Amino acid sequence: MVVDAHVHFWDPRALDYPWLRDEPALARSFAPADYSALADGSVDSVVFVEANCAPTQSEREVEHIERLAADDPRVAGIVAFADLSSSDSGGAALARLTTVERVVGIRQNIQGHAPGFCVQPAFVRGVQLVGDGGRTFDLCVTADQLPQAIDLVRQCPGTRFVLDHCGKPDVRNNAFASWANDIALLAEYENVWCKLSGLLTQADPGQRSADVLAPYADCVFDRFGHARLMYGSDWPVVNLGGGVDVWRAVVDHFTSSWSDADRQSFHADNAVRFYGLRLHADR
What is the phi-psi region of residue 77: left when phi exceeds 0, alpha when psi lies from -120 to 50, beta otherwise? Predict the structure, then answer.
């Protein structure tokens, strides 16, 4: 069984995604029926992660995904956006999301924000409230932001975190050492997990191979182990880095020596356990 712990769906005709203006290859609708891995059965269930629509439309995004999931229950969970930087609106948004059973986690991108954003008191308190409500928090940061992400995690011991895209190492410039050091520090917190995802889009075309990406995959495996590492495709953004088939080939090469039990944990069980998913067969 495979649970893809990181996919996106969007429809620019229904909601505004400002970042798509700079990515014409992605500026169209993407729905479950468009994801070839769902169509051919190589993925059994997916977790939708908020796709950075206009913040005022985030609750409409959840409604849109709920409609998609009603038609395709293999959409097992939603990681929704909430503006945790606002002490006035963050708690209210979290309260409204508690009524949506399929919402299993929260994400507000830290990537793209100025230094200090994720350790400001309102944001820290918002992430603490996420944990108080039994939800998880997806950490979307770039490698240079990892030290402040570590500070955020230190202040939120009651919240379970998952690091998206391995913390976005700068593969293009071979900036491995400082990233690996920060990954080691972050992984010391047992409430932090990691998605093996997103590496293709951090690499130049000539670097998109198992040989080049192996040190990065080995590093997160060495630090998070079989129990806190999960598979994600980052579809359809992965199309900018060669596509999901290329990524699956890299992942399959990396995990080829693992036992069946460890591969099952990585490909499905860890995501189910972390997010508390109820898969479509259980609904």
Answer: beta
Take residue 277 and report the two structure tokens written for it.
């998913």
Classified as helix, coil or strand, 45 is strand
195 sits in which H/E element: strand 192-196
pTM score of the predicted model: 0.96
- Which residue type occupies 189? Y
Cα 252 to Cα 120: distance, rounded to the nearest angstrom: 40
Task: Read off the pLDDT of residues 233-283 as tens digits, 9 standing for 90 and up.
Answer: 999 999 999 999 999 999 999 999 999 999 999 999 999 999 999 897 665
For the segment 112-158, what is each residue's pLDDT rounded down to a tens digit?
Answer: 999 999 999 999 999 999 999 999 999 999 999 999 999 999 999 99
Instruction: With beta carbons less than 8 A apart as the criterion, state whether 221 and 229 touch.
Output: yes
Name 195's bridge partners.
230
Cα distance between the two ends of the chain? 17
CA quadruple 145, 146, 151, 152: dihedral sign: positive
